[in-house]
Design brief:
Layout lengths: L1 E10 L2 E11 L4 E5 L6 H9 L6 E6 L5 E3 L12 H6 L3 H15 L5 H16 L5 H11 L16 H13 L5 E5 L7 H12 L4 E5 L3 H7 L2 E6 L2 E6 L2 H16 L5 H19 L5 H9 L29 E10 L2 E11 L4 E5 L3 H11 L7 E6 L5 E4 L13 H6 L11 H10 L16 H14 L4 E5 L7 H13 L3 E5 L3 H7 L2 E6 L2 E5 L3 H6 L1 H10 L2
Parallel strand pairs: 3-7, 3-8, 5-6, 6-7, 12-16, 12-17, 14-15, 15-16
Antiparallel strand pairs: 1-2, 1-4, 8-9, 10-11, 10-13, 17-18
Helix pairs in contact: 3-4, 9-10, 10-11, 16-17
Amino acid sequence: MISVRDLKLAYGKRVLFEDVNINFTKGNCYGVIGANGAGKSTFLKILSGEIEPNKGTITITPGERMAVLKQNQFEFDNETVLNTVLMGHKKMWDTMQKRDAIYANPDATEEEYMEASHLEAEYGEMGGYESESDAAAFLNGLGVHDEMHQMLMKDIPSNMKVRVLLAQALFGNPDILLLDEPTNGLDIETISWLENFLADYENIVLVVSHDRHFLDAVCTHVADVDRQKIKVFTGNYSFWYESSQLMARQVSDKNKKMEEKRKDLLDFIARFSANASKSKQATSRKKALEKLVIEEIEPSYRKYPGIIFQPLREVGNQILNVEHLKSTVEGRTLFDNVTFTVNKGDKIALVSRDPLAVTNFFNIVNNKDKADGGSFEWGTTVTTAYLPIENSEYFTKDMNLMDWLRQFVPLHVTDVDEPFLRGFLGKMLFSGEDVMKKTTVLSGGEKVRCMISKMMLQNPNCIILDQPTNHLDLESIQSFNEQCTNYSGIVLLTSHDHTFMQTVANRVIELTPKGIIDRLATFDEYLEDDRVKTLKDEMYA
């Protein structure tokens, strides 16, 4: 168990935590959520001992081992991949090193050999004799295959380093596991492997993630970091979000009788519990929900941005025709023979095994890059708004947000006064003096929110989104997702956010070096389609 008592952390006048009292118990996975800057990652660093709080105590049950997902990719550059994972169990690794040093010493004394025999026994009790095969299994499960296991960390790609460090944290069945954004750099198959592993994990897990599908798959509880406090709620992220939104609506309705509110919440919990019976953690979730006290549920105090795309006109019959489009980078074919037509009502998820492929495709159809072959044509009725994965070119001038947004007002808008611009910025949570903030000091998340304000100004009937959840907090992701789901126009989308892709898209197109795979299906249906899996093997061969 982890027990936190009277925790306080402040940096000057900025107080992150005040009088935090909380327990984390065995068998539970806690999703640590909160707005950007609320202190989620900092809290994990306090628990691990990396940061010392101003006040309070962190108590861990004696004898329990804690493992932390490392963020420094260069820390183990001169170690082999396999040894890097083995080092995750520090006590086992140190025991092995001491034992091997004695055996390697030709002048070792009888007393030292006796010590080595004791170390040998300790090593065996900790599972040392199976450690290399266990470490290799973790690496293979995370997509780091046998041929890399004896390579030095400095010689493997950065996306593989992330996976090795994750394997290091998972190795040796730690009693407490702290994971900060563990899905970064992972593909869909690897994330699924990690979801299954954590869903069956019997010890304590605390995880910070912006991936709602991942949080829903693994979490039994939500630890909400808000207003200098941390409150734990039973259920996964979707249950926390839906129930807090329901409570907020009921609190605002002064005429509703308390008993009616209670009945609605009980009905909601019953429905959720029925759905939870199909999840990976059915037993633990159902038990937790059975113990849930209605009074534990509170309305969220979070601010959600108002993302609203209002098309100026409906799209016509011709939207986008793509013919035999091809793109290469440094001799590598990203995609070829891409031919398809966008139809009315389409919300298309574009995917590829090559992370550059979809970005290049979006840049080509937005006239930012040139194709190596083929053509495309937009319909005359189409008004697009593009959210690129890289937005630095839009923030090169030193100006305030009001003047920045003014640059992008379309010609059809004639009455552009201060309240008009403040309205769009205000929807994205830039209020009061925030609108005079300089673009040169914006964070990554603030820049994305500015770009969304720019998109809303365009009144588009087609939106193009390249990794729209990057840099955004869960509140912004939730609002963005709901708007795209309800949006009446065309959506072209790619995202690492599984929930975003599943809830928005009604069609999936995969770009490959040998053409496309095109299916009218949800994202999950596409992933589970055996015919698609067979086609992929052929298209990427």
